[in-house]
């Protein structure tokens, strides 16, 4: 009995800052992870925090982020506030000795992300950007197929992400003060896929359509690479698009089915045949990144090998370059 107890994985105590739509889905998936406890949640409203805590079995509810960051029982904090608050919320948690999983984009620009990474490294604390896509079973399978050179050399990535949003200029999607615009909200997914598959482009072309609040409602990108591969990427709040991704190689194609950033299905097209892989994710899909964070903390490593901090910094650098090209300034 003693040895069994000794070998049990360490229970990870989580906190959540920002209790909106994504936080609800994330908290539900926390319940599915073994040896995982929701220790505390925080909102500017105690009433909201208390209701959220009751719904997802949180031990504590706080009316300030500072109180949560100071809870000695919390190991790691998930930050799910609007984009423009990610930097200050992450720095608050790191400075209070907490590991952090920060919702994407990690920062509004590469300067913020670089500072966050430096802070985490100086304090020897775990930090990861919450790009749940990276940990989905479908993406893991895609990476495996690419490593095996199943489709040969990659020559093109095509990915789109679009939905028709209600034009409410005060909403998070269109409010510049909250980091609005399609690029940071959904364009990050096609860009991340291109970075994961092809690396850093040698040249970037970008065009956008801007709203009266000076954020992009549509963004189209063409990336060029030293290998002569290309990436054709698109994000929009104006229309519903297929939201699929294709990776074309010299020997075949991999399709990530709708919606590619959380796909359950990929198809391999090769030698005039199709092979379909059904790869369902667990819960709402956040379970897989939760497991990655838990494993990193239990193994006492301060960054994920699957989503290292250099990758997040490269992503932030790409996003910042695109912002400059389309005249998007926060």
From TrEMBL:
Domain Gfo/Idh/MocA-like oxidoreductase N-terminal, first and last residues per copy: 12-128
Transmembrane intervals: 182-200
The protein's enzyme class: oxidoreductase
InterPro entries the UniProt entry points to: Gfo/Idh/MocA-like_OxRdtase_N (IPR000683), Gfo/Idh/MocA_domain (IPR050984), GFO_IDH_MocA-like_dom (IPR055170), NAD(P)-bd_dom_sf (IPR036291)
SUPFAM superfamilies listed in its UniProt record: Glyceraldehyde-3-phosphate dehydrogenase-like, C-terminal domain, NAD(P)-binding Rossmann-fold domains
GO molecular function term, any single one: nucleotide binding
Keyword Transcription regulation: no
UniProt keyword annotations, A-Z: Membrane, Oxidoreductase, Transmembrane, Transmembrane helix
One Pfam family, short name: GFO_IDH_MocA_C3
Domain GFO/IDH/MocA-like oxidoreductase, residue spans: 141-254
E.C. number(s) listed in UniProt: 1.1.99.28
Assigned protein family: Belongs to the Gfo/Idh/MocA family.
Protein name, UniProt field: Glucose--fructose oxidoreductase
């Amino acid at each position: 009995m003693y040895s069994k107890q000794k070998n049990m994985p360490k229970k990870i105590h989580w906190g959540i800052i920002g209790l909106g739509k994504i936080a609800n889905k994330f908290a539900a998936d926390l319940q599915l992870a073994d040896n995982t406890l929701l220790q505390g949640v925080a909102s500017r409203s105690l009433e909201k925090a208390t209701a959220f805590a009751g719904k997802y079995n949180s031990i504590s509810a706080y009316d300030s982020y500072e109180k949560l960051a100071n809870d000695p029982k919390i190991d790691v904090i998930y930050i799910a506030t609007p984009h423009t608050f990610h930097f200050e919320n992450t720095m608050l948690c790191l400075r209070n000795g907490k590991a952090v999983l920060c919702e994407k984009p990690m920062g509004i620009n590469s300067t913020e992300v670089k500072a966050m990474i430096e802070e985490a490294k100086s304090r020897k604390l775990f930090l990861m950007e919450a790009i749940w896509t990276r940990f989905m079973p479908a993406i893991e399978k895609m990476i495996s197929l690419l490593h095996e050179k199943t489709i040969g050399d990659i020559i093109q990535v095509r990915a789109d992400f679009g939905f028709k949003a209600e034009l409410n200029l005060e909403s998070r999607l269109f409010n510049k003060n909250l980091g609005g615009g399609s690029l940071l909200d959904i364009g990050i997914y096609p860009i991340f896929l291109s970075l994961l598959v092809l690396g850093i482009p040698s040249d970037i072309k970008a065009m956008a359509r801007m709203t009266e609040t000076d954020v992009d409602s549509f963004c189209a990108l063409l990336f060029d690479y030293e290998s002569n591969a290309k990436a054709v990427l698109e994000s929009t709040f104006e229309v519903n698009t297929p939201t699929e991704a294709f990776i074309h190689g010299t020997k075949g194609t991999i399709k990530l089915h709708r919606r590619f950033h959380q796909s359950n299905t990929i198809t391999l097209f090769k030698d005039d045949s199709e092979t379909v892989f059904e790869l369902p994710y667990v819960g709402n899909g956040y379970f897989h990144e939760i497991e990655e964070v838990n494993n990193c903390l239990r193994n006492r490593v301060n960054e994920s090998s699957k989503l290292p901090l250099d990758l997040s910094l490269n992503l932030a650098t790409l996003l910042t370059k695109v912002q400059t090209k389309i005249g998007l300034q926060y």
